[in-house]
Model the fold of this input.
Amino acid sequence: MALFISFEGGEGSGKSTQAALLAERLRETGRRVSHLREPGSTGLGNYLRHWLKSNDRSMTHEAELFLFTAARAELVRRVVKPALRDGEIVVCDRYADSTTAYQGYGRGLPLAAVRAANHLAAGGVWPDVTFLLDGAPHALLMRARAQAALYDERDAADRERDGWQRAQDGGEERFERAPLAFHERVRAGYLRLAEEEPERWRVLDAAQGAGLIAEQVWDEVARLEARAGAASVAGERLPGM
Ligand code: TYD
Done:
């Protein structure tokens, strides 16, 4: 049964871990799963990812908005829609809400413009459920930096084995080094989005242990699957923005 699940959150929130755990568990129980990340998961998406993640390539906020949404336009039409039509479960590590939170609330671009760009890029494809891993930015950033330092201590072979992208992504990352106030705005933006559309969002405390969060995610997905027909519309529903 087709289902579109996205994970959102600030830097170091642990959402990538949760997306991976969910995708793995779904596969283990026999479901067909596409595990995607944004930006990425297409040729153009991966190319743009290198640009976007690297801190040493400056660009205007408007250009940033268009690059993220360009990556999404490709992903939706080439990967997400076909997978949903094929009855797969799509697990996406970030989606259009990241653009609203980061480029809209974080960068301060007009929300109406961000909404319009998202609307065009998403082409009517909106998640059935979005998990927000919420936490205080200073705590999450400290955790992210501690993890990064840990990675730095490993040798190159280890990193390669882990598929760790930081080296190729160009060292310091665009958003991790942004001022704390930026991350506070991103968090507030996410919480606002969750408040505006409570039927789609599930807000989880990112400070909990990963195992505990994974169980909450699993329970929710099971509930969603049990709800008849939850998904068949995922490919055609109008965006909730
Ligand atoms: P990523 O490695 O996915 O970061 P994280 O590990 O925090 O998920 O890198 C993506 C970065 O791009 C992340 O800092 C959030 C940002 N971003 C936006 O600003 N707008 C967007 O639309 C998307 C998808 C990501």
